[in-house]
Amino acid sequence: MRYLEVRRHSKRIRPEQHLSQWGVNLARRVGETIGSFERVVTSPLPRCVETAVAMGFAVTETIDELAGDNHLGERFPGINQMDWAAGCAGFVPLIASLDSLATFVENQACLWRAIVEAIPEDGSALLVGHGGAFLDGTAVFCLPEVDHRAWGAVSRYCEGIRLQFDGERFTDGEVLRVVQSG
Fold first, then answer.
1. Is the model's pTM score more than 0.90?
2. Spatial distance between the Cα atoms of 14 and 85, rounded to a whole number of angstroms
3. DSSP letter string over 134-180?
4. What integer pLDDT is reported at residue 70 of this predicted model?
5. What pLDDT was estimated at residue 106?
6. What domain count does the chain have?
7. Which end of the chain has less Cβ packing within 10 Å, N or C?
8. In 3-state terms, what secondary structure has residue 91?
9. 126 lies in a domain?
10. Does a structural domain hold residue 22?
11. According to the model, what pLDDT value does residue 86 have?
12. How confident is the model over 69-115, as pLDDT tens digits?
């Protein structure tokens, strides 16, 4: 079994791309509680790279496609139709009804798979990227048979999911929550 831990970047103050001090502190705190990784991959945007570094990890690689088509990591197909109150489960009907979103999360899932396939058996990789469909929607796509309502709200800063990969597909996931106090 291999593992892929996918985390949303920490807090920044828009429109800045760099983490705020609160965001650095949060990432440091989270980094103290998570394991080691054979590979650390991020979106190329500063807020993602800085999150991994503040967590205490050297970035192995950045992948441009993790930031989306506009290279900002902020927009994805169907963002304006998303029922945010439904949490992660809100992605289920949206992915089923919007081909553009289904294609988007499938492409992100292919990136995730390539990352986890590049580590040794029993190894772990960390991916620091963006929220919304970049993380939660893609996790829903990767694990279509689980009860997504049980996952609750979409990922906040430094939250995410730890996925198990059996060499062929993602088989299970644990939602990773973080207390957001500074």
1. yes
2. 23
3. GTHHHHHHHSTTS-GGGG-SPP-TT-EEEEEE-SSSEEEEEEE----
4. 86
5. 98
6. 1
7. C
8. helix
9. yes
10. yes
11. 97
12. 889 999 999 999 999 999 999 999 999 999 999 999 999 999 999 99
Torsions phi, psi for 83 (to 5 deg):
-90, 90
Residue 102: which CATH number? Answer: 3.40.50.1240
Is residue 182 in a domain?
no
Helix spans in the chain (H):
21-31, 46-55, 91-97, 99-117, 136-142
Mean pLDDT across the chain = 96
Q: What is the pLDDT of residue 182?
A: 55
Residue 181's pLDDT is 72
Contact by Cβ (8 Å): 118, 167: no
Residue with the bigger pLDDT between 153 and 179: it is 153
Q: Is the pLDDT of residue 50 over 90?
A: yes
Closest CA to 150 of 164, 139, 165: 139
**Both structure tokens of 138:** 């893609």
CA 94 to chain centre: 18
- In contact, 45 and 73? CB cutoff 8 Å: yes
160-165 and 61-62 beta bridge pairing: unpaired
Residue 8 exposed, middle or buried by CB count within 10 Å (0-12, 13-18, 19+): buried
Contact 7, 154 (CB under 8 A): no
SS3 category, 10: coil
CA separation, residue 143 to residues 36, 104, 123, 160, 169 (Å): 24, 16, 20, 14, 9
| Domain, as residue range, for 145 | 2-176
Q: Which residue has the tokens 């790279």?
A: 49
Residue 7 counted as domain residue: yes
